[in-house]
Amino acid sequence: MSERTIQGRTPGETLLDVRGLRVAFPRRGRTPLVAVDGASFSVRRGTVVGVVGESGSGKSMTANAILRLIPRPGEITDGAIDFHGEDLAQASETRMQDIRGKRIAMIFQNPMTSLNPAYTVNRQMTDMLRRHTGISGEAARARAAELLREVGIPAVERNLDAYPHQLSGGMRQRVIIAMALSCQPELLIADEPTTALDVTIQAQILDILEQIAADPNRAILFISHDFGVIARLCDDVVVMYRGKVVERGPVDRILAAPEHPYTRALLGAIPRPGQRGRRLMTVEDQMPAEALP
After folding, report:
1. For a disulfide at 260, which of 106, 121, 226, 247, Cβ 3.0-4.6 Å?
2. Closest alpha carbon to 181 in 238, 133, 234, 246
3. Which residues of the chain have pLDDT under 50?
């Protein structure tokens, strides 16, 4: 991965090292469906690493595997997920419960599936703070309010007592980011956090993520299908195609001289101003044949 300084960021020690990760879904009487096939990459402290690819390429499944949140009957069948010298692929569920939210946190694509509609923002944030930091009562509420201010939530006291459905999509996503930051995790995984938002709100969320990335003690793994967003936010990029990592390296090098045909096709499919009438490149046969009905 990159040794350069990006936007004031200098790579630190390796925080996460994924080696030969394989995730498969068994199917009765049929060959297992392989969702992630031998993926390898690393994330260094103080950097943002982007994972890019189309839907079905395995990028979100890779993120879920890191936190051991693979939907059943999927399972990790090979490889290692080294986090501070500990292989998360072999860790117990009890151990993972201690790590999730506290040391590795995740921002999901759709905040409505991440927030409990039956509980207020305050309840959900203070429950997490109580579990992982031990603070409670007014101290927990004060910390929750502080986090909401940091991510730009207005009228904090009122919105702390709001239910998710009473907030806009952009505000819900800000709440999710605040919750992810509440225990000061070392690694933040952002799984397409701007996909469901309009362009203006997307830009605001990316501004927040850039501020988070300025912390030299934290790393971000940013999942996206949008090379434009990857180029803006990330230091390094991992390109996934049909469950495999087909290219990885510094963002500027890959943007300037992509080596793999799939990477070139992804870049060629990006509309550019002033090129009306230019035929966009297409990516053929992206979905594995065995996944088709």
Report:
1. 247
2. 133
3. 1-6, 286-293
